[in-house]
Each structure stands twice: as C-alpha cells, then as structure tokens.
Amino acid sequence: xxxxxxxxxxxxxxxxxxxxxxxxxxxxxxxxxxxxxxxxxxxxxxxxxxxxxxxxxxxxxxxxxxxxxxxxxxxxxxxxxxxxxxxxxxxxxxxxxxxxxxxxxxxxxxxxxxxxxxxxxxxxxxxxxxxxxxxxxxxxxxxxxxxxxxxxxxxxxxxxxxxxxxxxxxxxxxxxxxxxxxxxxxxxxxxxxxxxxxxxxxxxxxxxxxxxxxxxxxxxxxxxxxxxxxxxxxxxxxxxxxxxxxxxxxxxxxxxxxxxxxxxxxxxxxxxxxxxxxxxxxxxxxxxxxxxxxxxxxxxxxxxxxxxxxxxxxxxxxxxxxxxxxxxxxxxxxxxxxxxxxxxxxxxxxxxxxxxxxxxxxxxxxxxxxxxxxxxxxxxxxxxxxxxxxxxxxxxxxxxxxxxxxxxxxxxxxxxxxxxxxxxxxxxxxxxxxxxxxxxxxxxxxxxxxxxxxxxxxxxxxxxxxxxxxxxxxxxxxxxxxxxxxxxxxxxxxxxxxxxxxxxxxxxxxxxxxxxxxxxxxxxxxxxxxxxxxxxxxxxxxxxxxxxxxxxxxxxxxxxxxxxxxxxxxxxxxxxxxxxxxxxxxxxxxxxxxxxxxxxxxxxxxxxxxxxxxxxxxxxxxxxxxxxxxxxxxxxxxxxxxxxxxxxxxxxxxxxxxxxxxxxxxxxxxxxxxxxxxxxxxxxxxxxxxxxxxxxxxxxxxxxxxxxxxxxxxxxxxxxxxxxxxxxxxxxxxxxxxxxxxxxxxxxxxxxxxxxxxxxxxxxxxxxxxxxxxxxxxxxxxxxxxxxxxxxx
Amino acid sequence: xxxxxxxxxxxxxxxxxxxxxxxxxxxxxxxxxxxxxxxxxxxxxxxxxxxxxxxxxxxxxxxxxxxxxxxxxxxxxxxxxxxxxxxxxxxxxxxxxxxxxxxxxxxxxxxxxxxxxxxxxxxxxxxxxxxxxxxxxxxxxxxxxxxxxxxxxxxxxxxxxxxxxxxxxxxxxxxxxxxxxxxxxxxxxxxxxxxxxxxxxxxxxxxxxxxxxxxxxxxxxxxxxxxxxxxxxxxxxxxxxxxxxxxxxxxxxxxxxxxxxxxxxxxxxxxxxxxxxxxxxxxxxxxxxxxxxxxxxxxxxxxxxxxxxxxxxxxxxxxxxxxxxxxxxxxxxxxxxxx
Lengths: 793, 339
What we know:
Number of domains of chain A: 6
CATH superfamily of the largest domain in chain B: Bira Bifunctional Protein, Domain 2
Helix content of chain A: 25-40%
Number of domains of chain B: 2
Distance between the termini of chain B: 84 Å
Shape of chain B: rod-shaped
Strand order of the largest sheet of chain B: 1-4-5-9-8-7-6
CATH class of the largest domain in chain A: Alpha Beta
Largest sheet of chain B: 7 strands, mixed
Largest interface: A-B, 87 and 84 residues
Oligomer: heterodimer
Shape of chain A: elongated
CATH superfamily of the largest domain in chain A: Phenylalanyl-trna Synthetase, Chain B, domain 3
Number of strands of chain B: 9
Strand order of the largest sheet of chain A: 27-30-31-35-34-33-32
Number of strands of chain A: 39
C-alpha cells in the first residue's frame, strides 16, 4: 500500500519527517518498507515566463528565448523545441541544476550563443501525460497551472508529495486504505481522527434510483451486502490535478474522472467500486446469483471466461454482467455513449472471491482486497463518498435514493475486557485507563466489562487480540524482558547423539558433509539404472512442481550423491569424499504420509581410493556406532553398482546397508571419469542394531603367542568364510585374526589363491605354551580342510 | 713405585685430554683402571712393599685412582654433552615448511550454524524435536489457524502432493504434533527442512531450513518471549547486538512480532546491507494463539505460551558473507572446505 502523505494530512496532521514517521508507524504495527519523495531528483528548476523568442543566427532548428525566472534580468536560454511561444509558462532548469536521473545542467554555448540553462519537457521532469493530460510529449512542457516566475517547479506542479510504502499483513485489509492508515497514525501520535460523513446534494428532480433499478441478492452468504447509487447525465473528462496527483502518488494511473473516482474511493475507503452502464442492465434488474452450468462472460479485459456454479456473478435477467468482486463484463462497461451509471459498492465473501479469482487465473486490485474479507459496514460510506466526488468534479447528477440489500450481521463482536489478564499475559502493568484510551483511539467501544469491536476489525475475535492492540500502542519496546520460570530438563535424545556420532566419525574419516535436495527428477532413476518395474520408481509426486528436476520425492539418496560427485568431478576437484544424512521418502498404499527414512550416504572418488577404502570407512563407522555382529554378502545384481564389487551389510538377517563401486555405465551417465564408490546405510536400522553396553575386561597379564598360517584355497572362496572357520575352531584362546596377504600368480596353481593369516592367542591363566598354541593351530587346520582350505607347503 | 704412580696419573691426564670419543674413553678406563690395567698391575705389586710403605703407597694409589675416575667421569659428561649438542644441531628442521595434515572432512556450513543454535537452546532447557516433511494440510495449516482459502496461504507458496498432503512450508506442524503428544510444560525447538515453491535463484530456494521453538506452561508471558529471544540473539550475534521487537501478524500467534537486529554494518543508519532500513529482520514470533492451544487440547485459560521461528540459510549467509544461496546445495569441495 502506497500512501500519499498529502492525502493522509486531509485526515491527520502529521508534521514529522518521513524517517521518524516510518519508524513510529513500524513500531505500532504498520510496517514501512520505504518512502519516496516525488521529484527529489529535481534541483534548481523553476517556473519561467517566456518573454521573447528569436531565431538562432547559426541554426535552423534552434531558437533563443528570453525567460523571466523571477530575477532582476531575464535569462537567455537556447532550445530546440518548436512549441515555445512568448507568454508561455515553462520549466526552466537554471545553471547548476539537476534533473531526475542525475542529469546536470550548466551554462554553456549552443552554436556560439550563450544559453544560461535549459527548458524542460514533461519527460525530462520524470512525468507523463497521465499526470498532465494537456501537455505534449515532444516539446517543452507549457504549464497551464497557476504559478509565478521563479517559483520552484515541484511546488508549482504539486510534484512534491511524499509517498510511504507500507507492508500490510493479510489480517488488516482495513489498512489498505488512507482512512485505515490515518486511524493508525492518529492512534500512534495521539492525535484526533474522525471519518467525515460525505455530503451528497442529489439532483432533486424527483427521480429516484428505485424507479429504474432493483437488486435481488439470491446468495446472501456470498454477498452479505449490495449497495448501489445511480448517476445520470455523465460527462467523462480528465480529473482535476489534485486527484491525479494523489492517484499518481498511490501508484495508480489516472484515466478519466469516472474511473479515477472509483479508484480514489477504493484507495481512500478500501472499498472496491464498480461502474456499470445502466442502459446495459436489461430490465433495470440486478440479480446477484451463482453462475449457471456452462455460463460464460467476456470480462473487461476482452477475455472470455468460463464460469462454474461456485462462482458468484452480477447479472441482469438475461446474462451475467460481472464476476462478483473480480472484474466487470465487457457487455456492461462504461463507453463514450454512457449517460447513466450504476455505482456498485458491494461486500462479497473473501474466500469465495479468492477461489473464483484463482480458478479464473485473474487477480485484480478488487479481488485482492475482497479476498482478505472486507467490512460490510463500509459500502455505504464509500458509495456516498464517490457520489460526493461526482458532484464535486461535475461528472454527472446523482440520482436520489440508494439501494441497499444488507444481510450482514447487525451485532458487533463483543469481547470481555480484562485488564488484569492482559497485564499478566503481556508481563506488563498498564493501568485500565490507559488501556481504555488506546482502545477508544482505535474506535473500539467500551461497555462495562466488554469491548465492542468496530466492524472494520474482523481480525479481533479474542482477548488475546485485545492484548495485542494494547501491546502495539503501549509499545513492544516497553514490555520488559524476563526469563522463563520453571526447571527445564533437556538433552539430546539417544537417536540425536547417535546421529552426531555419525557426523563426527565420517568427518574424522575425511568426508565432507553435503546437503542435497529431497526432491529429484524421475529421470534420475534412469540415470542410476533402475529397471522400469523397480518399486523405487513409485515416488511421492509433487502435483505443482517448479520443474521436472524437482518433481518427485526421492526414494533413494544414491542419485543425489552421484550429482554431487559429478559436479565436483566436472569442476576438476581431483579428490572428493562426501557424506549426507538425509531422508528417503517411501510411499505405502493406504498410508496417507510416506515413511521418511534417514540414510547416511557416503560417496567418494580419487586420492587412490578403492572399494576397501570405502569398506574401511563403513567398518569404522559401524565400530564407532557400536554396531557389532554384522554380516556382509556380495550383491551381484544391483543396477547402480559394479556386479563384482558390491556388497550388502546385514544385521540379524536384515539389510542395513549397501556399498560398492559405481557401475561403469552409471559413471558414464554422470560423466564421472574416475572410479567412484557409494555406500548407503539406514540410520534407524543402525540404531536398532547398536549395542551401547560397554563392559571393561582386564588388560592381559600374560604374553601372547602368534602363529602365521599361509593357506591355499579356491580363488572364488570369500575370505570371510575362512575367517569364520578360524574363529569358530581355534578355541577361547584366540584373541585376534589378521589377514596380511592374499596372493595369486607364480607358485600358486591357477584358480587358486594363497591367503596368509596371523593368529594371536593368549591364555588368561598363564603364559601360553608352544604346545597349547600348536594344538589350537591343529584344530583350525582340521576345520579348514572341510571347506577345502589347506596349509600351503 | 711412587714415580710409577705419578707417571700413570700423568699419562692418564694426557691421554684423557686428547680423547674425543666416548668409545675411546671407555678403552682408556680399561687401560688405566681395568682388571688388567696399569694401576691394577701396580697394586698387585704392593705385596712386595714394606709394612711402612704399604699404607702410604696404598693411599697414594687410591688417590691416583680417585683422580683418574673423576677425570674419566668429567670427560664422559663433557663428551656426552658435545655429542648431544652435535645431534641437536644436525637434526635442525625448517619449521616453516608445511605440516602433514591428517585428512579430515568438515560439517556443512548449514549444520555448523544449526548445531550452534541447537546448543544455545539446549542450554536454555529446550529439547530438540522433529516431524515429517511430507505433511498433511491439517497439521501444516488448519491446526495453525490457517483454514483453506485463508489469505495467509498466499504468502507460503505450497507444494501439493494431493488435496490433503503437502510438503511442509514451516516446521510449525511439529509443534502441533508435540502439543498433541505431550502436556505442558513444553519447551522444544524443531529444526528441519521446509519447502516453498520459489524458483531457484541467488536468494531463493524451494528447499530451505527453519528452526522453530515453542514454550507452553502456566503463566508464560510476552515478557518471557522477549527475554528468551533476546538471550538467544545475543548468544548468536554477540552481546552487543541490539534487538528490536516490532508488531507483525501470524495466524497462529497473537500478539505477534518480528524481531530485528540493528544492522551490524551501519548501526541503524541505513545502508545497502539492510536495504536502507537500519535493521535486519531475523525472527518471527508471538504468543501462541488461543485457538491453536485449544486445537491441541490445551486449555488457553490455564496455559499460555510463545512460539518463534527463523530461517537458517539467511543467518548462515550473513555469518560468512555468502551471496548466493545455491552454493549450499551445489556442494562444491572448494566451497565446503572453507568452513
């Protein structure tokens, strides 16, 4: 909402500088976004009277003018314009003056003739023909205003208003008006304020609106009030300067007196008005009804609109003539031939206007106001104010009488007035009298222990709302600051600490945390090689996405991490180790909301990394998270991974994670030219599988015995199988098993491999003897023979 | 014999003076004092001396032994010191050469600041709660006093899954879920991802992070709200931060406020950073609307509370002078490595 300070001053006398005014209104709840002073780029430009115009000796298109700018001697100014004549009033930019946009004017010579300034066009002053319809666009602006030589041009043109821009919150549609803001300003400064009752003389010729117009409201829920006045003998022409100035300062382009009046009243009262050509209302009957199935209308902007039964229209007995609260129809618009006008000042249900405007894809100034919910009590004042202006501007004659179909609730909202509760709630001590003063200044009324809410304050429903009014004008800054009472107990939950440990461990292992979007493109599933029938393609879909790239909620975090690897690879980062803790969103039939499963996803390439780098990192993570007793199994058919370099992690038979080298064709899809590795673990499954019990074991008192074993086995045999057998067969004395070599090649038969282990054994009862150690090795070897693993000799 | 002893003393002194090596010194010890050494040889000959001479010579011999031992140990000490000195000199490093860093990763800048904020509130007794990101319209809007067709929905361009399911536009639904589950006293913050259909550019992202907070108890006042948030802002921005509470509107709080901090760059005068306003908006807050309490089955006559919420990205951008929001989600190593 752009507020003209000049307009505001019709109602409240504010004589403070804009900065202070902005601050004061902001602190009382009407947030000021900024302000502009009209023409503040103009300096040392004055009104000049043209005394003489003579041809330039050395030019065909230049003329030399003598201009009276109020000084002792007239100035000589050279201009190229052809419309300057003696006796005309012109804007004269003096030596050293500035024009909008920072243009500086200096005394100089044009083709050898001294010019002591410049005569200005409308455009050079930052104005348009909308501001001064009588002016020409190409040529010097010849003023038809009351002015005198040497007068400051901004003053002469009324081009010096200050325009303050407010951010009005949706609960305060009453403040989308000059009167509403005047009320707030008056309460802020403790100044008197009252809305003046408009005075309409009327034509007094005995004709009455009821004689030629009737209004029937068929749906009073959607149209609580419909008020109309009629104007005859309409003469359309330009509005006077003061009205154009105010519209301009409010950001509205002046058009003609009739349109300008409807806009002016909308800005002043916050009530949209609509003007119909009365001759186009067939039968003189206005019917406010829901649209009929299949009905359509061509709106003022020339577009055909298909309506539906939920939409409210203004109609005559034959057809719709306007979409209620949104836009009028072309069929009933004001034209050059219009002689009688019906002025509609109606109240419509906000939510209905909102839905209609949205479904028609047209949000207008009127609908934007209506949808916030306007005051039904405002229609009469607004239409009378418009009629007052019609008479003032001589636009036409106001027909006596008014049509007013009013179904709006008569009873105002009443709220208990409880100053003690308000003080307790806000933590202040404001006397009752002070509270009453604040409420009265905002036009609330008090009756005993009740506050009566004015009709324009539909946002006030509860005593907390009254408390806010008190707080706003008492001053938020005066409310003390206290500490909340009561003991507080808070700590991170075990799950939150668990997650923190994931962050710490992976960072310590060299991984940078990344944050990726939760939504992806469905194409990403192709990129990671998911088959067409993969259940992971069943994503939660956004029905109104910004674009395909962010249109579905990911069912796997793998493509997000691949995007990150791809970005870093493309930007020549030679090594990248990253991880993310982020959700996967898995929908389930018959369940309103999807499961949101947090995953820890690790991705890396470069720096000499290989599958075992990644696996080591995962093992470290499991160790730090107290997840023990997990199992690992090769996975040969995951489309995203290399079939020979992928594994799943299992805990109690359930998959808790997946890790592997990215499949070469997936790497190609992401233009990653290095081998890359991905792991993904389910955070909740990890947490469920963790055992946080730690029990101290005495540090060993006796030395350990170590035995190294070199074994031969089939090259396809997974190493873990050998280790499992060793652990199972060695007995209690086995403390650790370390793999230290795997070898294929010379000295080893084809299709075989050599595997070397170091076994650490220790007895808690004394130094282990060679005999005991050898016996254990013997047991191990015997067990290994059963899976065809033999000692290498 | 006396001469012989003197000669040994002299010889030992001479040879020790020349000795420059610990090994050689050891050989000298053997040569003079060892079992087969010169002094031992003389002592063995003591038996042939007269009874009068024997004690004298014995004393002299001990004297000589004592002197040699002392010289030996002195020499050993000085040689050791010289050797250490030599070692230290030869081991000198150019300490200005770069160190070998262990490879470590870092937290994302959003997490870095989020953790800081969580810690501040944990310190004030707030628990951290979370809830679903794919949320129902009911929890995201209706329970928060934003019915369908409420104009406030315009300011939160929502991603819809279907008529009743959306991507949450705020973390406030977590507060509702908390109030439904837990009875007062309640003191929680709910951080997390939120979604609004803003096209991606330098200052907008369809996904960003919020931290919201909620306090409900008997006798909670707006002064408590101001006090709590002032402590928070000062912990986050420094003790000299100047805070301003300004009236605003949110459908789920009444009275509502926005919290500004005085611009750090111009100190309230108005500059480019604060768009001429002198203040930077950082938080929205207010007393929980009685209808919201009632919706959650909490009696507004018995309990009151306050709520607040803030966007994380803007805080982080200001903290590190980051001018483009997209950097957070691009995850370029050269960006991530700076925090």
